[in-house]
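Our platform keeps sequence and structure together, in a single record for each protein. Such a record has a labelled line for the sequence and another for the backbone structure tokens. The tokens are whole numbers drawn from a learned vocabulary of local backbone shapes. The remainder of this section carries one protein's record, kept here as part of the documentation:
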Amino acid sequence: MNTRRRCYAPGSAIDHVCAPLRGSLPGARGTTGVWATLPARQSGVSLLLVLIVLAVLLLSAAALLRNTETASLIAGNITFKQAALQAADIAVNQAVADLAARTALDTSVPGVYVATRLATDATGLPTELDWSAVRSQRVGSVHIQWVVDRLCAGPLPVINPISQCQVNELPTAGSNKVGSPDYRSLTTYFYRVTVRVRGPKNAESFVQSVVTR
């Protein structure tokens, strides 16, 4: 029976574990076991390398996951932006149709039409508008809301459109004589359409368009 035992390699003072190997030495008689030496203690270097490799793999996996989440977020934002622009076009068309059918332009309709200019913030969005009171409509995966305000200053009714409102004036035919007065006629008012688009995860986008009538 083969067993292991402590031994000293010839000419060395280092302690080794000796293990018998089956076979015979050249020129030896019988089946005498041949002893091979194995280290008795592990230095721990292999374990340290394994831990380092595992740490590197873990960091790489975390970075890859973060990049994937960022890419998904960017793709979602782009998709929402495209859907918001398409829905905003629908809202602007609805607002223009409503404005074309409106006759009492000096009368405000809550949540739909404001006869005077709304105050805005630094980005140009109305600050005096309560969106919770504005009608909401679902278009695909988003909800749209729109409000029209006339670019005029109070008080109402508007008496002097040229001084109170932002209007579009076109010169009328007059005298070709040098120095003669340039007659102008009032043609159209300017109106601002503000559209709010709300999507999944409380995402929202605002689109504004200026139209004339």
Q: What stands out?
A: Residues 49-174+183-212 form one domain. The first strand starts at residue 5 and ends at 8.
